[in-house]
Amino acid sequence: MDKFYIITNSDKDKEFKITGQIVEYLRSHGRECQVQQAKRKMDGPYHYTDPKRIPEGTECIIVLGGDGTLLQAARDVVHREIPLLGINLGNLGFLAEVDTQSLYPALDKLMAGSYEVEERMMLTGTVYRDGKVIGRDIALNDIVIGRDGPLRVVRFNNYVNEEYLNSYNADGIIIATPTGSTGYSLSCGGPIVSPSASMTIMTPIAPHTLNIRSIVFPPQDVITVEIGEGRRQDKENGLASFDGDTMIPMVTGDRIQIRKSAVSTKILKLNHLNFVEVLRQKMGNN
Q1: In the chain, is it the N or the C terminus that has fewer CB atoms within a 10 Å radius of its CB?
Q2: Of 11, 50, 67, 130, which one is the catalytic site residue?
Q3: Coil, strand, or helix at residue 75?
Q4: Is the predicted pLDDT of residue 42 greater than 60, yes or no?
Q5: Which residues are noted in the entry as NAD(+)-binding (predicted)?
Q6: Is 245 labelled a binding residue?
């Protein structure tokens, strides 16, 4: 690789010390490298990163921060189809597996072409009200449908490929990718799935029933979640959250249709840590 681009989280690298070290190291080895600071809530169609600023021919995007920064960058730059490498400046992450201790060996591997590209499935969620689209976004980790307002459960009506599945009261529902299986879904009792797999995981959040568990669906299935009526036929308010970032308000009768996205995130793997090793460390099993 010869052309690099850095997206850096200034909250994690406040004085751009590590960013500067990477730029200097790459340029000292004859490589091209430019930098963009991830900004909070940009104006326009993008969230934190403007993909139009990334030069043509860029071969790798290095994301400095953590899993959250990489998630934000992935959603903005996915249509550029440039592989991402996450540099974790905090705790060990599932996405940003390279840390500052292994930074220079990782850069050496990139320059030497010693890497693999792993495709990560994404989700597209489209919110409908009275048959009309009121919002749409993509997610690499998960789409969460939950309540908005008072602390009370919401009725969810669930469909798979337009066929009725079930209904139940809960705090919310998580629709996760394999990448997102180690996030919010896991904390709510969902299964851990290898990130290289292709499937969709549906996990309830604090369901008010004993017989509802996570369900795993094949990638071609389309899941629809409808906000049901509240107690005494009240109108409920909900939110659809994409990777914990974009929020689309929903009300009783609104539906969100979730399917495998036509685009995917490309993650660079340097064999520094494979998924099993990261999982073992995260789970505390030595």
Answers
A1: C
A2: 67
A3: helix
A4: no
A5: 67-68, 141-142, 152, 171, 182-187, 206
A6: no
CB 250 within 8 A of CB 240: yes
Is residue 134 a contact partner of residue 283, using CB atoms and an 8 Å limit?
Answer: no
Closest by CA to 264, choosing from 136, 63, 154, 118, is 118
**CA 2 remoteness from chain centre:** 27
Q: 60-65 and 84-88 as β-strands: parallel, antiparallel, unpaired? A: parallel
Determine the pLDDT at residue 45. 67
Please indicate if the annotation marks 182 as binding a ligand.
yes
How are beta strands 237-242 and 142-147 bridged, if at all? antiparallel
Half-sphere exposure of 171 (CA within 13 A, CB side): 5
Q: Please say if the pLDDT value at position 150 is more than 80.
A: no
pTM: 0.90
166 among annotated binding-site residues: no
Q: Is 141 annotated as a binding residue?
A: yes
- The helix (H) or strand (E) run that includes residue 210 is none
Mean pLDDT of the chain: 90
The token pair at 86 is 């996450």
Asked whether residue 194 is marked as a ligand-binding residue, the answer is: no
**Distance between CA atoms of residues 136 and 147, nearest Å:** 18
Confidence at residue 95, expressed as pLDDT on a 0 to 100 scale: 82
Rounded mean pLDDT, 170-196:
94
